[in-house]
TrEMBL record:
A Gene Ontology cellular-component term: membrane
Membrane topology, as annotated: Multi-pass membrane protein
Organism: Zosterops lateralis melanops
Pfam families linked: Ion_trans (PF00520)
Limits of the Ion transport domain: 61-282, 401-634
Protein name (record): Ion transport domain-containing protein
SUPFAM superfamilies linked to this entry: Voltage-gated potassium channels
Keywords: Membrane, Transmembrane, Transmembrane helix
Organism lineage: Eukaryota, Metazoa, Chordata, Craniata, Vertebrata
Length: 744
């Protein structure tokens, strides 16, 4: 079962066998809606239990482990970074393929047969397994007869990372690329036409003037060389070097290069981004709408399984609702579940109506922090002293915002002193002054706040860093500690509202960074394997004092007096998997990337990588960041909040205003964020609980987008059926009501 509590998930998997079938099926629907899974599974009792097992966190982690193990085998296979015997790598690869086959078989057991065999990703996995086993067998037989062959099946290994059901985000990114390609193609053709025309003009302008480069080579006399040099100029990697021979001959020739850069670097590259962003946003909106309708349909199916008649409406009884929530989210505490029930059944009628039930998946996705209020230990040990007037005044000062501002100013001054001359004795003395001030801060906060609840790792780090500074009188340790403390300046930046938009965007894109990291890994793996097969052994690295033949030419006489050899780029090679990744990373950055092109045929390979990685994938990533910022910015400007979040906030206000309401649930509960430590004898809170919504900066951008699009769907609209939603094309918008199905 999905959920945050792994141990709880294991226990609930065993107890699920004893629960009614309709409750298990409803839990599967709600769980799918919560995590946006679109798997059309069978509804038989055995299939539902297998489906719960399929989605268990241990199964998902095991799948990812073997996927990355399969990809990492390239580090140990020839050409290897860390060589292992062929038998060892073969056994590991066969083990990975068996796990993939088992996972695919498990998936086939829980899905409908017609859906399984129509699903392209399942066919891709089966073909990849068959090709890998065939290639492994052929390679092993040829190796027995000392015949060298190519492991051509290694290029299909990234297919497993893309096509398993767990990798739906990566598949969405690939769909964005696929849907964007037609529009990009037209822009790319115009760009190539411009590049070829400028290359032709450059040949006529400079080809017959006998100009030479700084290395004494002919300047712009070969048309294909001109095309490549101008393509590199689009990336600005060879600017202004490529222009200098013409510039030295006549200053008027700079107009040619200025016009080229404006048209191709600024206009066409911006057009690429505009086209990618426009298509990405359009297809993302359609996919998110599809997810929203699928979530609504699954929640309605779950409601129909558990509903009972109450007067003129159908409802879900409180007991059944609690069983369902405990099964879907076994890690939630009982008090948290009671809080969710108070929100769903706000009138305390003993049942949940359809409108509130449909919102359960969103309710479970909102991170609600439950804190138990504890009194300060000093309030228990010396209540008279801790509750005295001077003690209360001191604690009010520490809790005041001016105290925070004061130490922010101290940290800023500390940063200025770190940048000053360390040889001055005054600077050295000042470091100990700052250390004393930090110790005073820690002691005051320990005195004011209950350490276990308020500080956590922040308190532990402050204490450990101070102890290290006092124990080891080492300048290096002092520097590290002070630099880490200066990082607290981030808090000052984060306190400014407009900076919060940027900070929230940066934090929100972290989960999606994993998606684009997986996308980049796939592209890198494919190009690295191709590069190893094409260029392995053509370049060798030798230490600086090596006397080996052709050491100065990187082991290749063809590189004599080349920019590659003179620049000492010999480690930029495709002799193993790790070196290949480093070269591809350098090409992604595009700085001086043309200098590492050692042989002429390699130019086509590297241009292809630049087009795929930099022009397409990087622009897709930039498009996502733009969309994330726009969503975050609009959220900050309009303070958009869902009805569920408002209900939680209203419940907190209601409890604060009327302490008797929900007394059995929230005994002595306080909603103030900074009142966790208690007030000595003035405000007894020994059994209190605090509920608050976690910061909205920890929501994913997909969740924010989906919430925006769900607002367009009327609550009474049940949407399309599962089959109709699944059959929608990515380019077709989801109709808003069943009556418009024919237009889809």
């Amino acid at each position: 079962l999905p959920g945050k509590g792994r141990a709880a998930g294991l226990d609930s998997s065993h107890t699920a066998l004893c629960l009614p079938q309709d409750l298990l099926l409803a839990a599967a629907f709600v769980s799918d809606a919560q995590y946006n899974r679109n798997i059309p599974f069978k509804t038989s009792p055995e299939a539902v239990r297998l489906y719960h097992l399929y989605n268990h966190w241990m199964m998902r982690i095991a799948t990812y482990f073997f996927i990355f193990l399969n990809l990492s085998l390239a580090l140990f296979e020839e050409p290897a970074v860390y060589p292992l015997p062929f038998l060892a790598t073969s056994v590991l690869e066969v083990l990975c393929l068996l796990v993939f086959l088992g996972r695919l078989t498990h998936f086939a057991k829980v899905t409908l047969h017609n859906v399984f065999w129509k699903d392209t990703k399942n066919i891709c996995i089966m073909v990849a397994i068959l090709l890998s086993l065939t290639d492994l067998a052929i390679y092993g037989v040829l190796r027995m007869y000392d015949v060298r062959s190519i492991r051509w099946s290694r290029i299909v290994r990234p297919i497993f990372l893309i096509n398993f059901a767990e990798s739906r985000q990566i598949r969405r990114a690939f769909r964005s690329i696929r849907n964007t390609l037609p529009e990009i193609t037209y822009v790319f053709l115009l760009f190539m036409f411009s590049l070829l025309m400028f290359s032709l003009m450059a040949l006529k302008l400079f080809g017959e003037r006998n100009l030479q480069t700084a290395e004494g080579l002919p300047y712009f006399r070969n048309y294909l060389e001109i095309v490549f040099d101008l393509y590199v100029l689009v990336t600005t990697a060879n600017s202004p070097d490529v222009m200098m021979p013409a510039f030295d001959f006549s200053s008027w020739y700079t107009l040619f290069f200025i016009a080229f850069v404006i048209i191709n670097t600024y206009i066409f590259m911006s057009l690429f981004l505009a086209v990618v962003y426009n298509n990405y946003k359009k297809h993302l909106k359609n996919e998110i709408r599809k997810l929203a309708y699928m979530k609504r349909r699954k929640m309605i199916e779950a409601f129909n399984l558990l509903k009972e008649e109450e007067g003129e409406q159908f409802v879900v009884r409180e007991a059944r609702w609690k069983q369902l929530v405990k099964l879907v989210a076994p890690d939630t505490s009982s008090s948290h579940r009671e809080l969710l029930l108070c929100i769903s059944d706000d009138e305390q009628k003993g049942f949940v109506d359809k409108k509130s039930f449909v919102q359960l998946a969103d309710l479970l996705n909102i991170q609600v922090v439950t804190l138990r209020v504890r009194r300060h230990p000093l309030a228990r040990w010396v209540p008279a002293l801790y509750g005295s007037a001077p003690s209360q005044l001191l604690r009010r000062v520490v809790r005041h915002r001016a105290f925070v501002w004061t130490y922010d100013a101290i940290i800023l001054i500390n940063a200025i002193f770190i940048a000053l001359d360390e040889e001055s004795p005054y600077i050295s003395y000042a470091e100990w002054v700052f250390l004393s001030l930090y110790i005073i801060e820690i002691l005051l906060k320990v005195y004011t706040y209950e350490p276990r609840e308020f500080f956590g790792w922040k308190f532990v780090w402050s204490l450990v860093s101070t102890v290290l500074t006092l124990k080891y009188n080492s300048q290096q340790i002092l520097d590290i500690v002070f630099i880490l403390r200066v990082l607290r300046l981030i808090r000052i930046v984060d306190s400014i509202q407009r900076f919060q938009v940027i900070m929230n965007t940066l934090i929100n894109i972290v989960p999606t960074m994993l998606t684009f990291g997986g996308l980049t890994l796939v592209v890198y793996c494919v190009f690295a394997i191709i590069g190893m097969e094409l260029f392995h052994g053509k370049i060798q690295y030798f230490p600086a004092n090596s006397n080996a033949p052709h050491a100065l030419e990187c082991g290749n006489p063809a590189l004599k007096d080349s920019l590659f050899a003179r620049g000492k780029y010999c480690k930029n090679n495709f002799n193993n998997f790790a070196s290949s990744f480093i070269v591809l990373m350098e090409l992604t950055v595009v700085n001086q990337w043309h200098d590492i092109l050692s042989v002429q045929p390699a130019k086509l390979y590297f241009i292809a990588f630049h087009i795929v990685m930099v022009i397409i994938i990087v622009n897709i990533f930039v498009s996502f960041i733009l969309e994330a910022f726009f969503v975050e910015y609009s959220l900050e400007k309009s303070e958009v909040e869902t009805a569920i979040e408002r209900k939680i906030q209203e419940l907190g206000m209601g409890v604060q205003e009327d302490e008797l309401q929900y007394e059995q649930l929230l005994d002595n509960m306080e909603s103030a964020e900074h009142e966790l430590e208690g007030e000595g004898g003035t405000k007894p809170q020994s059994k209190g609980l605090v509920f608050k919504i976690a910061s909205k900066r920890y929501r994913t951008v997909d969740a924010l987008l989906q919430r925006m699009f769900e607002a367009e769907i009327p609550l009474e609209d049940e949407g399309l059926s599962f089959e109709e939603i699944l059959n929608l094309s990515p380019t077709s918008a989801v109709p808003r009501s069943p009556s418009s199905e024919s237009t889809a």
